[in-house]
Amino acid sequence: MDKSIISMSKLLLKLDSISGNNKVMVFASRIHQVKIGKEEIENYCIWNKSGLTRNYLRKTEEYELLLLCWEPGQRSSIHDHNGQRGWCYVIEGTIREEQFEFPKIPGKMKLINNPFLKQGELAHIRDDIGLHRLSNVSDDERAITLHLYVKPLERVNVFNEFTGTMREITLEYDPIAPDSYRDGSISEQVR
Questions:
Q1: Staple partner for 46: which of 23, 121, 125, 176, CB 3.0–4.6 Å?
Q2: For 60-85, what is each residue's pLDDT tens digit?
């Protein structure tokens, strides 16, 4: 039996129903089942030529689900995850994930891993793996990624690549999610 999750409504139902003692493992299992395509989420995408957009889909006490939209060449800052676990699923495009060591002394940060994630691939990050920066590697194609954080990620530390200095920032959303996703009601039929 195919357990793939191909719609946002089904994903939200699955995530909202997680309970018990081993929640992180169940969240990980659910995000590994995701096979959502661009046609399922394109109405929820918003684009900004001056920076990637962080589009809020659902936030509960247990998790946060975001849709990030990347114009060609856009990238995030180097950042931590404030003790939370995160997954990034590539819906469209190719994303470069640069992983860095936490800086121990001032100076240029050390790159420790540099994978490329293609459509349908998934990455996992937590602070003991390292810091990371994501970027859309294309010069002419957009990228779309789905991000799951267990627990919600409200603040992160961002790092200067050349000095290793950090500062804390509060994360913001670009307000595009349909009300049916935000308030917990789901108007579309589960596939």
A1: 176
A2: 999 999 999 999 999 999 999 999 99
Is the pTM higher than 0.85? yes
Residue 152 lies in a domain: yes
Taking the mean position of all CA atoms in its chain, how far away is CA 123? Answer: 9
Query: For 164, left (φ over 0), alpha (ψ -120 to 50), or beta?
Result: left
CATH number at residue 148: 2.60.120.10
Q: Classify residue 177 as exposed, middle or buried by CB count within 10 Å of its CB (0-12, 13-18, 19+).
A: buried
For 152, the token pair is 């919600």
Grouping H, G, I as helix, E, B as strand and the rest as coil, residue 61 is: coil
The rounded Cα 126 to chain-centroid distance in angstroms is 12
d(CA 30, CA 140): 32
Q: What is the largest CA-CA distance in the chain?
A: 53
Sheet holding 85-92, edge to edge: 53-59, 64-70, 143-150, 85-92, 122-125
